[in-house]
């Protein structure tokens, strides 16, 4: 059994952690720390989880000998502070993305964890999105031949939410950049088109980043000004193409905990695959969707803690993605659209 605690109790915890952890028989959520000011007018949700102890005493959590892992789900500016405190008390840490505000802070935490024989890891749970897992399945099958282009979209139509200082690089693009980096690793060159459309120089609210890998180009696009539904993934190879629209697997309740389905989504939302086989025969078919399950990351982390297996999210991947995020933010501020990778 792995006993864990949370620092923070925002929407990410309610929607992307607890619904998956509740299904895990080998993981127990003992407590959640919240600042007193965060509880004002927001205690109803605590009642949804009667088996979890809620506290405003951080020291109580840090000094609890039963707790082995602390999950940090606060604003990025406090990630390093809380991670260091947890590590000082000999707790492993899982930190919500982005892992830290800067590459230097992230290195500091990784080094400190290593010096104590503990695990510090970023919660890159979107590697276990059903859409992304389906994309990987198609690529791994080889039916598309040599992959030439991949487009990844994370779009909404919510221009009313864009305020000064709004950041889509750290808010949305962190997911998709990590997904593609986990597939292909370090690119040879990156082209940034990261703009401050609504508040020039004060936010990054439009993202179009190209990652070049020789003959392969991957593109991450994010916008809050996309009114018509756009495919989540578009892949073109020299033998065929694949398109997948985004899928929803959660049911968010206004007066109760979020529930998730671990069933395969309806066939109407499966991806579309078209390719030419070795005999020159055309194939047009639907690809059965993989299931979204963010609990897989916890299972892999459990194995890393209990069985000393390799961490599912490597330090060098986190550092590389953080550097890309920060370069993108700077591109929006300075209108600098290209970075060579040395």
UniProtKB/TrEMBL annotation:
Pfam families: GFO_IDH_MocA, GFO_IDH_MocA_C. It comes from the Bacteria. Residues 3-123 form the Gfo/Idh/MocA-like oxidoreductase N-terminal domain. GO terms for molecular function: nucleotide binding. Residues 136-334 form the Gfo/Idh/MocA-like oxidoreductase C-terminal domain. Belongs to the Gfo/Idh/MocA family. This is Oxidoreductase.
